[in-house]
Amino acid sequence: MTHAGKILRKINDKMILARAEKAPKINAKVYDSKGKIVGSVYEVFGPVKNPYILIRILEGQKAIQNKKETIYFGE
Questions:
Q1: What is the dihedral of CA 25, 13, 6, 44, to 10 degrees?
Q2: Distance CA 45, CA 59 (A)
Q3: Which of 20, 34, 46, 63 has a CA that sits 20 to 30 A from residue 11's CA?
């Protein structure tokens, strides 16, 4: 897993907005700080150096509630 960034806000029950240190691949798996998969990268937008990422939450999974929680991504 690679450090991805921080949660900025919950958009709804299915999407989270985060700020990444670098652009992850679309559909990359997203993990919480405990290593549990929470979803996948849905969209990447904004500045190249610190892009925003939309994370689609897995069905049946609760969205991360803690703002500023560190997230990670993998293949």
A1: 30
A2: 23
A3: 34
Residue 54: both structure tokens together: 């939309």
Phi, psi of 2 (to 5 degrees): -120, 140
**Predicted TM-score of the model (pTM):** 0.85
Q: pLDDT tens digit string along 2-42?
A: 777 899 998 988 999 999 999 999 999 999 888 889 899 99
| Token pair of 4 as six digits | 């991805």
Every domain of the chain and the residues it spans: 2-74
**Encoded amino acid at 42, one letter:** Y
Q: Which fold has domain 2-74?
A: Thrombin, subunit H (2.40.10)
Maximum CA extent, the chain:
32
